[in-house]
Amino acid sequence: MTARPAVEIRGITKRFDDVVAVDAIDMQIADGEFFAMLGPSGCGKTTTLRMIAGLEFPTEGSLKIFGDEVGTLPPHKRPVNTVFQSYALFPHMNVLDNVAFGLRMNGVDRTTARRRASEMIALVRLSGMENRRPAQMSGGQQQRVALARALVNEPKVLLLDEPLGALDLKLRQDMQLELKELQRRLGISFVFVTHDQEEALTMSDRIAVMNNGRLLQVGTPEEIYERPANRFVADFIGTTNLLDGTVVDGSTVCLANGTRVAARCEHPAGTTVAVCLRPERARVVTAGDGTASRIDGVIDTVTYIGNARVYTVRLDWMQLRVREENRPGAAPREAGDPVSVTWDMNAVTVVTE
Amino acid sequence: MGVHAGVVFAFFYAPIAILIIFSFSGDRLVGRWGGFTLDWYREFWNNDQLTNSITVSLQVALIATVASVVLGTLSALALERFRFRGRRVFDALLYLPIIIPDVTMGIMMLVFFAEGIDVVDSLLGISLAKGITTITLSHIAFCISFVSVVVRARLSGMDSRLEEAAMDLYATRWQTFRYVTLPQILPGVAGGGLLALTLSLDDVVISQFTSGPGATTLPVYVFSLIRKGVTPMINSVSVVMFLASLVLIAAMLAVDRLRSTGSSVPSAVPGGDLSAEPAVGGHERGDT
Question: Is CATH 3.40.50.300 the right assignment for the domain spanning A7-231?
Fold first, then answer.
Protein backbone atom coordinates (compact mmCIF):
# COMPACT_ATOMS: atom_id res chain seq x y z
CA MET A 1 0.00 0.00 0.00
CA THR A 2 1.46 3.30 -1.00
CA ALA A 3 1.12 6.02 1.57
CA ARG A 4 -1.12 8.80 0.32
CA PRO A 5 -0.24 12.14 1.84
CA ALA A 6 -2.80 13.35 4.38
CA VAL A 7 -2.57 16.83 2.94
CA GLU A 8 -1.14 17.68 -0.44
CA ILE A 9 -0.72 21.32 -1.38
CA ARG A 10 0.33 22.34 -4.88
CA GLY A 11 0.98 25.89 -5.96
CA ILE A 12 -1.43 27.37 -3.42
CA THR A 13 -1.70 31.14 -3.51
CA LYS A 14 -3.99 33.30 -1.43
CA ARG A 15 -4.50 36.97 -2.17
CA PHE A 16 -6.51 39.38 -0.04
CA ASP A 17 -7.21 42.26 -2.40
CA ASP A 18 -3.65 43.29 -3.30
CA VAL A 19 -1.88 41.53 -0.46
CA VAL A 20 -0.36 38.15 -1.22
CA ALA A 21 -0.75 36.23 2.03
CA VAL A 22 0.43 32.89 0.70
CA ASP A 23 2.61 32.71 -2.36
CA ALA A 24 2.67 29.55 -4.49
CA ILE A 25 3.34 27.02 -1.76
CA ASP A 26 3.95 23.30 -2.31
CA MET A 27 3.74 21.06 0.72
CA GLN A 28 2.99 17.47 1.56
CA ILE A 29 1.96 16.30 4.99
CA ALA A 30 2.18 12.56 5.58
CA ASP A 31 -0.46 10.54 7.38
CA GLY A 32 0.31 10.27 11.08
CA GLU A 33 2.83 13.07 11.03
CA PHE A 34 3.25 15.85 13.57
CA PHE A 35 3.79 18.76 11.22
CA ALA A 36 4.56 22.31 12.30
CA MET A 37 4.22 25.49 10.28
CA LEU A 38 6.61 27.96 11.77
CA GLY A 39 7.23 31.61 11.06
CA PRO A 40 6.86 35.13 12.36
CA SER A 41 3.40 36.66 12.50
CA GLY A 42 2.05 37.57 9.10
CA CYS A 43 4.11 34.92 7.31
CA GLY A 44 1.05 33.11 5.94
CA LYS A 45 1.12 30.07 8.19
CA THR A 46 -2.31 30.69 9.69
CA THR A 47 -3.79 31.45 6.29
CA THR A 48 -2.42 28.16 5.01
CA LEU A 49 -3.97 26.34 7.97
CA ARG A 50 -7.29 28.09 7.39
CA MET A 51 -7.23 27.02 3.77
CA ILE A 52 -6.79 23.40 4.84
CA ALA A 53 -9.72 23.87 7.25
CA GLY A 54 -11.85 25.47 4.53
CA LEU A 55 -12.21 28.78 6.35
CA GLU A 56 -10.43 30.47 3.44
CA PHE A 57 -10.47 29.42 -0.16
CA PRO A 58 -7.24 29.50 -2.15
CA THR A 59 -6.98 32.01 -4.99
CA GLU A 60 -4.96 29.53 -7.02
CA GLY A 61 -3.61 26.04 -6.68
CA SER A 62 -4.75 22.63 -5.59
CA LEU A 63 -5.38 21.31 -2.10
CA LYS A 64 -6.01 17.62 -1.54
CA ILE A 65 -6.86 15.76 1.62
CA PHE A 66 -6.17 12.03 1.26
CA GLY A 67 -6.29 12.41 -2.50
CA ASP A 68 -9.59 14.30 -2.67
CA GLU A 69 -9.52 17.80 -4.04
CA VAL A 70 -11.10 20.02 -1.36
CA GLY A 71 -9.94 23.47 -2.50
CA THR A 72 -13.36 25.13 -2.44
CA LEU A 73 -15.36 22.75 -0.26
CA PRO A 74 -16.98 24.45 2.75
CA PRO A 75 -15.51 23.51 6.14
CA HIS A 76 -18.35 21.20 7.11
CA LYS A 77 -17.57 18.90 4.19
CA ARG A 78 -13.94 18.29 5.08
CA PRO A 79 -12.61 15.47 7.28
CA VAL A 80 -10.56 17.86 9.37
CA ASN A 81 -11.17 19.70 12.62
CA THR A 82 -9.50 22.71 14.14
CA VAL A 83 -8.35 23.74 17.58
CA PHE A 84 -8.62 27.51 17.39
CA GLN A 85 -6.34 30.07 18.85
CA SER A 86 -7.99 31.12 22.13
CA TYR A 87 -10.20 28.05 21.60
CA ALA A 88 -13.50 29.66 20.42
CA LEU A 89 -15.56 27.51 22.78
CA PHE A 90 -19.30 28.21 22.64
CA PRO A 91 -19.92 30.33 25.76
CA HIS A 92 -23.63 29.53 25.96
CA MET A 93 -23.10 25.77 26.11
CA ASN A 94 -21.60 23.60 28.81
CA VAL A 95 -18.56 21.42 28.24
CA LEU A 96 -20.55 18.34 27.27
CA ASP A 97 -22.60 20.19 24.67
CA ASN A 98 -19.51 21.90 23.32
CA VAL A 99 -17.82 18.56 22.79
CA ALA A 100 -20.96 16.89 21.42
CA PHE A 101 -21.62 19.73 18.96
CA GLY A 102 -19.75 18.30 15.99
CA LEU A 103 -21.34 14.87 16.40
CA ARG A 104 -24.81 16.37 16.66
CA MET A 105 -24.28 18.48 13.54
CA ASN A 106 -23.10 15.36 11.80
CA GLY A 107 -26.39 13.63 12.53
CA VAL A 108 -25.30 11.41 15.43
CA ASP A 109 -28.24 10.85 17.80
CA ARG A 110 -28.26 12.59 21.14
CA THR A 111 -27.55 9.59 23.36
CA THR A 112 -24.62 8.36 21.30
CA ALA A 113 -23.23 11.86 20.94
CA ARG A 114 -23.36 12.38 24.71
CA ARG A 115 -21.71 9.04 25.39
CA ARG A 116 -18.88 9.64 22.94
CA ALA A 117 -18.43 13.22 24.18
CA SER A 118 -18.15 11.93 27.75
CA GLU A 119 -15.52 9.41 26.70
CA MET A 120 -13.52 12.11 24.97
CA ILE A 121 -13.84 14.38 27.99
CA ALA A 122 -12.44 11.54 30.08
CA LEU A 123 -9.57 11.14 27.62
CA VAL A 124 -8.52 14.75 28.13
CA ARG A 125 -8.94 14.23 31.88
CA LEU A 126 -11.85 16.58 32.48
CA SER A 127 -14.37 14.06 33.82
CA GLY A 128 -16.73 15.67 36.28
CA MET A 129 -16.65 19.04 34.55
CA GLU A 130 -19.25 18.19 31.89
CA ASN A 131 -21.73 20.76 33.20
CA ARG A 132 -19.38 23.67 33.50
CA ARG A 133 -19.44 26.61 31.17
CA PRO A 134 -16.20 27.57 29.42
CA ALA A 135 -16.04 30.82 31.41
CA GLN A 136 -15.81 28.77 34.61
CA MET A 137 -12.64 26.96 33.55
CA SER A 138 -8.96 27.80 33.52
CA GLY A 139 -7.02 28.36 30.30
CA GLY A 140 -5.51 24.89 30.41
CA GLN A 141 -8.90 23.28 30.92
CA GLN A 142 -10.43 25.27 28.07
CA GLN A 143 -7.57 24.10 25.90
CA ARG A 144 -8.46 20.49 26.70
CA VAL A 145 -12.13 21.11 25.93
CA ALA A 146 -11.12 22.57 22.56
CA LEU A 147 -9.02 19.47 21.88
CA ALA A 148 -11.81 17.13 22.90
CA ARG A 149 -14.33 19.05 20.81
CA ALA A 150 -12.19 18.61 17.72
CA LEU A 151 -10.99 15.04 18.35
CA VAL A 152 -14.37 13.55 19.18
CA ASN A 153 -15.22 13.80 15.49
CA GLU A 154 -12.32 11.51 14.64
CA PRO A 155 -10.83 13.87 12.07
CA LYS A 156 -8.28 12.51 9.64
CA VAL A 157 -6.18 15.58 10.21
CA LEU A 158 -6.24 17.80 13.29
CA LEU A 159 -5.37 21.43 12.72
CA LEU A 160 -4.05 23.48 15.63
CA ASP A 161 -3.70 27.25 15.42
CA GLU A 162 -1.21 28.43 18.05
CA PRO A 163 -2.97 26.20 20.56
CA LEU A 164 -0.55 26.85 23.39
CA GLY A 165 -0.09 30.57 22.86
CA ALA A 166 -2.45 31.63 25.65
CA LEU A 167 -0.94 29.36 28.32
CA ASP A 168 1.80 30.18 30.77
CA LEU A 169 5.21 28.60 30.37
CA LYS A 170 4.91 25.66 32.75
CA LEU A 171 1.50 24.66 31.45
CA ARG A 172 2.73 25.06 27.92
CA GLN A 173 5.56 22.63 28.44
CA ASP A 174 3.19 20.07 29.99
CA MET A 175 0.73 20.48 27.12
CA GLN A 176 3.52 20.06 24.56
CA LEU A 177 4.29 16.61 25.88
CA GLU A 178 0.63 15.79 26.23
CA LEU A 179 -0.18 16.81 22.67
CA LYS A 180 2.72 14.79 21.35
CA GLU A 181 1.61 11.77 23.35
CA LEU A 182 -2.00 12.19 22.19
CA GLN A 183 -0.90 12.38 18.57
CA ARG A 184 1.16 9.20 18.91
CA ARG A 185 -1.78 7.37 20.47
CA LEU A 186 -4.32 8.50 17.86
CA GLY A 187 -1.98 8.06 14.92
CA ILE A 188 -3.52 10.91 12.89
CA SER A 189 -1.70 13.90 11.45
CA PHE A 190 -1.49 17.01 13.57
CA VAL A 191 -0.81 20.21 11.66
CA PHE A 192 0.36 22.79 14.05
CA VAL A 193 0.89 26.52 13.57
CA THR A 194 3.31 28.31 15.86
CA HIS A 195 5.69 31.22 15.97
CA ASP A 196 7.69 29.59 18.76
CA GLN A 197 10.66 27.82 17.21
CA GLU A 198 11.47 25.92 20.38
CA GLU A 199 7.95 24.52 20.47
CA ALA A 200 8.23 23.49 16.83
CA LEU A 201 11.61 21.80 17.39
CA THR A 202 10.41 19.94 20.48
CA MET A 203 7.15 18.58 19.13
CA SER A 204 7.33 18.13 15.39
CA ASP A 205 8.32 15.32 13.09
CA ARG A 206 8.78 17.89 10.35
CA ILE A 207 8.75 21.68 10.25
CA ALA A 208 7.85 24.06 7.45
CA VAL A 209 9.48 27.45 7.91
CA MET A 210 7.60 30.30 6.28
CA ASN A 211 8.19 34.00 5.81
CA ASN A 212 6.35 36.65 3.78
CA GLY A 213 3.95 34.09 2.37
CA ARG A 214 6.72 31.88 1.05
CA LEU A 215 7.78 28.45 2.11
CA LEU A 216 11.49 28.60 2.85
CA GLN A 217 12.33 25.11 4.03
CA VAL A 218 10.63 21.86 5.01
CA GLY A 219 12.52 19.29 7.00
CA THR A 220 13.00 17.45 10.24
CA PRO A 221 13.95 19.60 13.23
CA GLU A 222 17.49 18.31 12.82
CA GLU A 223 17.71 19.26 9.15
CA ILE A 224 16.25 22.69 9.82
CA TYR A 225 18.63 23.36 12.68
CA GLU A 226 21.76 21.79 11.22
CA ARG A 227 21.34 22.70 7.58
CA PRO A 228 19.24 25.84 7.30
CA ALA A 229 18.35 26.57 3.68
CA ASN A 230 19.00 30.27 3.91
CA ARG A 231 19.88 33.15 6.14
CA PHE A 232 16.32 33.69 7.41
CA VAL A 233 15.90 30.08 8.54
CA ALA A 234 19.34 30.08 10.16
CA ASP A 235 18.48 33.23 12.06
CA PHE A 236 14.93 32.27 13.00
CA ILE A 237 15.68 28.79 14.34
CA GLY A 238 17.65 28.84 17.54
CA THR A 239 20.33 31.42 18.23
CA THR A 240 23.12 31.77 15.77
CA ASN A 241 26.03 33.96 14.73
CA LEU A 242 25.88 35.03 11.11
CA LEU A 243 29.26 36.07 9.78
CA ASP A 244 29.01 37.93 6.48
CA GLY A 245 31.54 37.13 3.78
CA THR A 246 32.17 36.04 0.22
CA VAL A 247 33.02 32.64 -1.20
CA VAL A 248 36.65 32.15 -2.17
CA ASP A 249 36.51 28.51 -3.18
CA GLY A 250 34.72 25.27 -2.21
CA SER A 251 36.22 25.24 1.25
CA THR A 252 37.11 28.82 2.07
CA VAL A 253 35.08 31.91 2.87
CA CYS A 254 36.56 35.36 3.20
CA LEU A 255 34.84 37.18 6.06
CA ALA A 256 33.94 40.87 6.03
CA ASN A 257 37.13 41.85 7.88
CA GLY A 258 39.33 39.91 5.49
CA THR A 259 39.86 36.82 7.66
CA ARG A 260 39.75 33.61 5.68
CA VAL A 261 37.98 30.74 7.36
CA ALA A 262 37.38 27.14 6.37
CA ALA A 263 33.78 26.31 5.48
CA ARG A 264 32.31 23.86 3.01
CA CYS A 265 30.14 25.52 0.40
CA GLU A 266 28.79 24.81 -3.06
CA HIS A 267 28.23 28.38 -4.12
CA PRO A 268 30.44 29.79 -6.87
CA ALA A 269 33.36 31.99 -5.91
CA GLY A 270 32.39 35.60 -5.27
CA THR A 271 28.90 34.82 -3.92
CA THR A 272 27.87 36.90 -0.94
CA VAL A 273 27.16 34.47 1.89
CA ALA A 274 26.93 34.22 5.64
CA VAL A 275 28.71 31.66 7.75
CA CYS A 276 26.27 30.29 10.27
CA LEU A 277 28.03 29.50 13.53
CA ARG A 278 25.91 28.15 16.40
CA PRO A 279 27.03 29.38 19.85
CA GLU A 280 27.51 25.81 21.12
CA ARG A 281 29.67 24.86 18.12
CA ALA A 282 32.26 27.56 18.69
CA ARG A 283 35.00 27.49 21.29
CA VAL A 284 36.74 30.27 23.12
CA VAL A 285 40.48 29.71 23.32
CA THR A 286 43.42 31.74 24.46
CA ALA A 287 44.31 34.32 21.81
CA GLY A 288 46.38 32.78 19.01
CA ASP A 289 45.40 29.15 19.67
CA GLY A 290 42.85 27.19 17.69
CA THR A 291 42.36 25.77 14.25
CA ALA A 292 42.60 27.36 10.84
CA SER A 293 39.20 28.93 11.35
CA ARG A 294 39.75 31.54 13.97
CA ILE A 295 38.74 35.09 14.75
CA ASP A 296 40.37 37.21 17.41
CA GLY A 297 38.41 39.36 19.81
CA VAL A 298 37.88 40.43 23.38
CA ILE A 299 35.38 39.00 25.84
CA ASP A 300 32.64 41.51 26.48
CA THR A 301 30.33 39.78 28.94
CA VAL A 302 30.13 36.44 30.67
CA THR A 303 26.74 35.03 31.61
CA TYR A 304 26.68 32.08 33.96
CA ILE A 305 23.54 29.98 33.36
CA GLY A 306 24.30 26.94 35.49
CA ASN A 307 24.94 24.23 32.96
CA ALA A 308 26.91 26.56 30.71
CA ARG A 309 28.57 29.93 30.31
CA VAL A 310 27.60 32.25 27.51
CA TYR A 311 30.34 34.61 26.35
CA THR A 312 29.81 37.54 24.10
CA VAL A 313 32.99 38.21 22.21
CA ARG A 314 33.51 41.62 20.70
CA LEU A 315 35.19 41.68 17.30
CA ASP A 316 36.02 44.94 15.64
CA TRP A 317 33.05 44.47 13.24
CA MET A 318 30.46 42.45 15.16
CA GLN A 319 29.69 40.50 18.32
CA LEU A 320 29.69 36.72 18.68
CA ARG A 321 27.88 34.55 21.17
CA VAL A 322 29.70 31.45 22.33
CA ARG A 323 28.26 28.87 24.68
CA GLU A 324 30.60 26.73 26.71
CA GLU A 325 29.33 23.68 28.58
CA ASN A 326 30.10 23.77 32.25
CA ARG A 327 32.52 20.81 32.46
CA PRO A 328 34.92 20.18 35.32
CA GLY A 329 38.29 21.71 34.59
CA ALA A 330 36.97 24.32 32.15
CA ALA A 331 38.88 27.47 32.91
CA PRO A 332 36.38 30.30 33.13
CA ARG A 333 37.35 33.45 31.29
CA GLU A 334 36.59 36.97 32.33
CA ALA A 335 35.39 40.09 30.62
CA GLY A 336 38.27 41.91 28.97
CA ASP A 337 40.33 38.77 28.23
CA PRO A 338 41.73 38.76 24.69
CA VAL A 339 40.66 35.46 23.11
CA SER A 340 40.23 33.65 19.82
CA VAL A 341 36.94 32.11 18.74
CA THR A 342 37.53 28.93 16.79
CA TRP A 343 35.56 26.06 15.27
CA ASP A 344 35.89 22.92 13.19
CA MET A 345 35.23 23.10 9.50
CA ASN A 346 32.15 20.83 9.66
CA ALA A 347 30.62 22.83 12.55
CA VAL A 348 29.41 25.64 10.33
CA THR A 349 27.01 25.97 7.41
CA VAL A 350 27.13 28.55 4.70
CA VAL A 351 23.87 30.23 3.76
CA THR A 352 22.82 32.84 1.23
CA GLU A 353 20.05 35.40 1.46
CA MET B 1 -28.41 65.57 48.49
CA GLY B 2 -31.61 64.11 49.90
CA VAL B 3 -33.50 67.27 49.08
CA HIS B 4 -32.15 67.38 45.54
CA ALA B 5 -33.11 63.82 44.92
CA GLY B 6 -36.54 64.56 46.32
CA VAL B 7 -37.00 67.47 43.92
CA VAL B 8 -35.90 65.38 40.97
CA PHE B 9 -38.24 62.54 41.87
CA ALA B 10 -41.09 64.97 42.40
CA PHE B 11 -40.39 66.42 38.99
CA PHE B 12 -40.42 62.94 37.46
CA TYR B 13 -43.32 61.37 39.24
CA ALA B 14 -45.68 64.14 40.32
CA PRO B 15 -47.27 64.35 36.85
CA ILE B 16 -47.88 60.63 36.91
CA ALA B 17 -49.41 60.81 40.36
CA ILE B 18 -51.63 63.70 39.32
CA LEU B 19 -52.67 61.85 36.19
CA ILE B 20 -53.67 58.80 38.20
CA ILE B 21 -55.53 60.83 40.81
CA PHE B 22 -57.50 62.85 38.29
CA SER B 23 -58.50 59.79 36.33
CA PHE B 24 -60.80 59.07 39.26
CA SER B 25 -62.17 62.63 39.40
CA GLY B 26 -65.89 63.13 38.95
CA ASP B 27 -65.63 66.57 37.32
CA ARG B 28 -65.89 67.04 33.55
CA LEU B 29 -62.88 69.31 33.54
CA VAL B 30 -59.55 67.55 33.44
CA GLY B 31 -57.88 69.59 36.16
CA ARG B 32 -60.63 69.90 38.78
CA TRP B 33 -61.39 67.41 41.53
CA GLY B 34 -65.05 66.43 41.67
CA GLY B 35 -65.22 63.42 43.95
CA PHE B 36 -64.18 59.82 43.37
CA THR B 37 -65.67 58.00 40.41
CA LEU B 38 -64.91 55.12 38.04
CA ASP B 39 -67.09 56.62 35.33
CA TRP B 40 -64.21 57.48 33.04
CA TYR B 41 -62.96 53.95 33.07
CA ARG B 42 -66.45 52.74 32.27
CA GLU B 43 -66.76 55.23 29.45
CA PHE B 44 -63.37 54.20 28.15
CA TRP B 45 -64.40 50.54 28.19
CA ASN B 46 -67.69 51.29 26.41
CA ASN B 47 -66.14 53.51 23.77
CA ASP B 48 -65.94 51.25 20.71
CA GLN B 49 -63.75 53.60 18.73
CA LEU B 50 -61.25 53.66 21.54
CA THR B 51 -61.14 49.90 22.08
CA ASN B 52 -60.91 49.42 18.32
CA SER B 53 -57.94 51.72 18.17
CA ILE B 54 -56.26 49.70 20.91
CA THR B 55 -56.79 46.52 18.91
CA VAL B 56 -55.37 48.19 15.82
CA SER B 57 -52.38 49.48 17.77
CA LEU B 58 -51.60 46.04 19.17
CA GLN B 59 -52.05 44.32 15.82
CA VAL B 60 -49.82 46.82 14.06
CA ALA B 61 -47.21 46.73 16.81
CA LEU B 62 -47.00 42.95 16.90
CA ILE B 63 -46.75 42.48 13.15
CA ALA B 64 -44.35 45.41 12.77
CA THR B 65 -42.15 44.08 15.59
CA VAL B 66 -41.92 40.55 14.23
CA ALA B 67 -41.30 41.71 10.68
CA SER B 68 -38.75 44.36 11.60
CA VAL B 69 -36.90 42.02 13.96
CA VAL B 70 -36.52 39.44 11.20
CA LEU B 71 -35.55 41.95 8.51
CA GLY B 72 -33.42 44.09 10.84
CA THR B 73 -31.47 41.07 12.09
CA LEU B 74 -30.92 39.86 8.54
CA SER B 75 -29.64 43.23 7.43
CA ALA B 76 -27.37 43.44 10.48
CA LEU B 77 -25.94 40.01 9.61
CA ALA B 78 -25.42 41.01 6.02
CA LEU B 79 -23.61 44.19 6.98
CA GLU B 80 -21.48 42.66 9.72
CA ARG B 81 -20.59 39.32 8.18
CA PHE B 82 -20.50 39.68 4.43
CA ARG B 83 -18.64 41.81 1.94
CA PHE B 84 -20.70 42.71 -1.07
CA ARG B 85 -20.94 45.39 -3.69
CA GLY B 86 -22.92 48.40 -2.46
CA ARG B 87 -22.45 47.47 1.17
CA ARG B 88 -21.45 50.97 2.25
CA VAL B 89 -24.36 52.56 0.42
CA PHE B 90 -26.77 50.10 2.00
CA ASP B 91 -25.20 50.85 5.37
CA ALA B 92 -25.74 54.59 4.98
CA LEU B 93 -29.27 54.21 3.62
CA LEU B 94 -30.25 52.02 6.53
CA TYR B 95 -29.67 54.87 8.96
CA LEU B 96 -31.87 57.24 7.00
CA PRO B 97 -35.18 56.50 8.75
CA ILE B 98 -33.51 57.21 12.10
CA ILE B 99 -32.25 60.57 10.94
CA ILE B 100 -35.04 62.06 8.85
CA PRO B 101 -37.88 63.78 10.76
CA ASP B 102 -41.05 61.82 11.35
CA VAL B 103 -43.11 64.40 9.49
CA THR B 104 -41.04 63.94 6.36
CA MET B 105 -41.24 60.20 6.73
CA GLY B 106 -45.02 60.46 7.16
CA ILE B 107 -45.49 62.58 4.07
CA MET B 108 -43.22 60.27 2.06
CA MET B 109 -45.28 57.32 3.13
CA LEU B 110 -48.53 59.09 2.37
CA VAL B 111 -47.47 59.94 -1.15
CA PHE B 112 -45.97 56.51 -1.67
CA PHE B 113 -49.09 54.72 -0.54
CA ALA B 114 -51.43 57.05 -2.39
CA GLU B 115 -49.59 56.30 -5.61
CA GLY B 116 -48.11 52.92 -4.86
CA ILE B 117 -50.91 50.88 -3.40
CA ASP B 118 -53.07 51.37 -6.47
CA VAL B 119 -50.23 50.25 -8.69
CA VAL B 120 -49.61 47.18 -6.54
CA ASP B 121 -53.31 46.44 -6.41
CA SER B 122 -53.71 46.64 -10.15
CA LEU B 123 -50.54 44.64 -10.78
CA LEU B 124 -51.38 41.80 -8.42
CA GLY B 125 -55.11 42.03 -8.83
CA ILE B 126 -55.68 42.28 -5.08
CA SER B 127 -57.07 44.95 -2.86
CA LEU B 128 -54.88 45.90 0.08
CA ALA B 129 -56.68 47.43 3.04
CA LYS B 130 -55.47 50.99 3.29
CA GLY B 131 -55.71 51.41 7.05
CA ILE B 132 -53.96 48.64 8.93
CA THR B 133 -51.77 47.55 6.01
CA THR B 134 -50.35 50.96 5.34
CA ILE B 135 -49.74 51.75 9.01
CA THR B 136 -48.03 48.40 9.52
CA LEU B 137 -45.86 48.80 6.43
CA SER B 138 -44.73 52.26 7.49
CA HIS B 139 -43.96 51.06 11.00
CA ILE B 140 -41.92 48.15 9.66
CA ALA B 141 -40.06 50.60 7.46
CA PHE B 142 -38.75 52.72 10.30
CA CYS B 143 -38.40 49.95 12.91
CA ILE B 144 -35.99 47.94 10.72
CA SER B 145 -33.33 50.62 11.12
CA PHE B 146 -33.54 50.63 14.89
CA VAL B 147 -33.48 46.84 15.17
CA SER B 148 -30.57 46.66 12.76
CA VAL B 149 -28.52 49.16 14.74
CA VAL B 150 -29.08 47.36 18.04
CA VAL B 151 -28.37 43.89 16.62
CA ARG B 152 -25.27 45.10 14.83
CA ALA B 153 -23.82 46.45 18.05
CA ARG B 154 -24.23 43.02 19.57
CA LEU B 155 -22.89 41.22 16.50
CA SER B 156 -19.74 43.30 16.28
CA GLY B 157 -19.01 42.45 19.91
CA MET B 158 -19.31 38.73 19.17
CA ASP B 159 -16.21 36.69 18.37
CA SER B 160 -16.63 35.65 14.73
CA ARG B 161 -14.35 32.70 15.40
CA LEU B 162 -17.27 31.07 17.20
CA GLU B 163 -19.03 30.87 13.86
CA GLU B 164 -15.93 29.50 12.20
CA ALA B 165 -15.64 26.90 14.93
CA ALA B 166 -19.24 25.85 14.33
CA MET B 167 -18.67 25.51 10.59
CA ASP B 168 -15.50 23.57 11.29
CA LEU B 169 -17.63 21.25 13.42
CA TYR B 170 -19.82 20.38 10.44
CA ALA B 171 -22.58 22.95 10.99
CA THR B 172 -24.11 24.36 7.82
CA ARG B 173 -24.60 28.09 7.53
CA TRP B 174 -28.14 27.80 8.84
CA GLN B 175 -27.13 25.54 11.74
CA THR B 176 -24.31 27.92 12.59
CA PHE B 177 -26.78 30.77 12.80
CA ARG B 178 -29.36 28.75 14.70
CA TYR B 179 -27.12 27.21 17.35
CA VAL B 180 -24.25 29.67 17.72
CA THR B 181 -24.92 33.12 16.27
CA LEU B 182 -28.53 33.51 17.36
CA PRO B 183 -27.99 32.48 21.01
CA GLN B 184 -25.08 34.91 21.13
CA ILE B 185 -26.98 37.88 19.70
CA LEU B 186 -30.33 37.07 21.32
CA PRO B 187 -30.11 39.89 23.89
CA GLY B 188 -29.58 42.32 21.02
CA VAL B 189 -32.45 40.84 19.02
CA ALA B 190 -34.74 40.98 22.05
CA GLY B 191 -33.68 44.54 22.79
CA GLY B 192 -34.27 45.54 19.19
CA GLY B 193 -37.68 43.89 19.28
CA LEU B 194 -38.65 45.74 22.42
CA LEU B 195 -37.50 49.00 20.91
CA ALA B 196 -39.54 48.31 17.78
CA LEU B 197 -42.59 47.45 19.90
CA THR B 198 -42.29 50.67 21.88
CA LEU B 199 -41.68 52.84 18.84
CA SER B 200 -44.62 51.33 17.03
CA LEU B 201 -47.01 51.69 19.98
CA ASP B 202 -45.80 55.25 20.53
CA ASP B 203 -45.87 56.58 17.04
CA VAL B 204 -48.32 59.40 16.29
CA VAL B 205 -46.87 61.37 13.42
CA ILE B 206 -46.24 58.69 10.84
CA SER B 207 -49.38 56.78 11.76
CA GLN B 208 -51.39 59.97 11.39
CA PHE B 209 -50.30 60.27 7.78
CA THR B 210 -50.67 56.64 6.85
CA SER B 211 -53.86 55.67 8.67
CA GLY B 212 -56.88 55.39 6.45
CA PRO B 213 -60.45 56.28 7.30
CA GLY B 214 -61.11 52.81 8.70
CA ALA B 215 -58.30 52.30 11.14
CA THR B 216 -56.64 54.48 13.74
CA THR B 217 -54.05 53.58 16.32
CA LEU B 218 -54.47 54.45 19.96
CA PRO B 219 -52.05 57.38 20.09
CA VAL B 220 -53.59 58.91 16.97
CA TYR B 221 -57.07 58.51 18.42
CA VAL B 222 -56.08 60.05 21.75
CA PHE B 223 -54.50 62.90 19.91
CA SER B 224 -57.71 63.52 17.99
CA LEU B 225 -59.69 63.43 21.23
CA ILE B 226 -57.70 66.37 22.53
CA ARG B 227 -58.75 68.44 19.55
CA LYS B 228 -62.41 67.67 20.18
CA GLY B 229 -62.23 68.80 23.77
CA VAL B 230 -60.71 66.89 26.63
CA THR B 231 -62.55 64.86 29.20
CA PRO B 232 -60.90 63.00 32.09
CA MET B 233 -61.42 59.82 30.04
CA ILE B 234 -58.07 60.69 28.51
CA ASN B 235 -56.60 60.38 31.99
CA SER B 236 -58.02 56.91 32.40
CA VAL B 237 -56.72 55.87 28.97
CA SER B 238 -53.28 57.18 29.89
CA VAL B 239 -53.31 55.33 33.21
CA VAL B 240 -54.13 52.08 31.45
CA MET B 241 -51.33 52.62 28.95
CA PHE B 242 -48.97 53.49 31.76
CA LEU B 243 -49.84 50.33 33.68
CA ALA B 244 -49.46 48.23 30.54
CA SER B 245 -45.92 49.53 30.02
CA LEU B 246 -45.11 48.88 33.69
CA VAL B 247 -46.19 45.27 33.24
CA LEU B 248 -43.98 44.99 30.14
CA ILE B 249 -40.95 46.38 31.98
CA ALA B 250 -41.54 44.11 34.96
CA ALA B 251 -41.77 41.09 32.68
CA MET B 252 -38.55 42.10 30.98
CA LEU B 253 -36.69 42.47 34.27
CA ALA B 254 -38.02 39.14 35.48
CA VAL B 255 -36.83 37.35 32.34
CA ASP B 256 -33.47 39.06 32.61
CA ARG B 257 -33.05 38.02 36.23
CA LEU B 258 -34.00 34.43 35.51
CA ARG B 259 -31.49 34.29 32.70
CA SER B 260 -28.57 35.77 34.60
CA THR B 261 -29.03 33.55 37.65
CA GLY B 262 -29.43 30.58 35.32
CA SER B 263 -26.05 31.08 33.68
CA SER B 264 -23.93 31.88 36.72
CA VAL B 265 -24.77 28.65 38.51
CA PRO B 266 -23.55 25.43 36.91
CA SER B 267 -26.50 23.64 35.44
CA ALA B 268 -27.74 21.01 37.86
CA VAL B 269 -29.24 18.89 35.14
CA PRO B 270 -26.97 15.93 34.40
CA GLY B 271 -25.93 15.92 30.80
CA GLY B 272 -26.99 19.52 30.33
CA ASP B 273 -29.04 20.52 27.37
CA LEU B 274 -27.83 21.47 23.94
CA SER B 275 -29.74 24.74 24.11
CA ALA B 276 -31.87 23.47 21.29
CA GLU B 277 -32.40 20.31 19.37
CA PRO B 278 -30.11 20.29 16.32
CA ALA B 279 -31.69 18.84 13.24
CA VAL B 280 -30.61 15.26 12.83
CA GLY B 281 -29.25 14.21 9.48
CA GLY B 282 -26.56 16.84 9.02
CA HIS B 283 -23.91 16.47 6.43
CA GLU B 284 -21.86 13.47 5.66
CA ARG B 285 -18.16 13.91 6.11
CA GLY B 286 -15.87 13.34 3.14
CA ASP B 287 -14.90 9.75 2.47
CA THR B 288 -14.20 7.14 5.07
Answer: yes
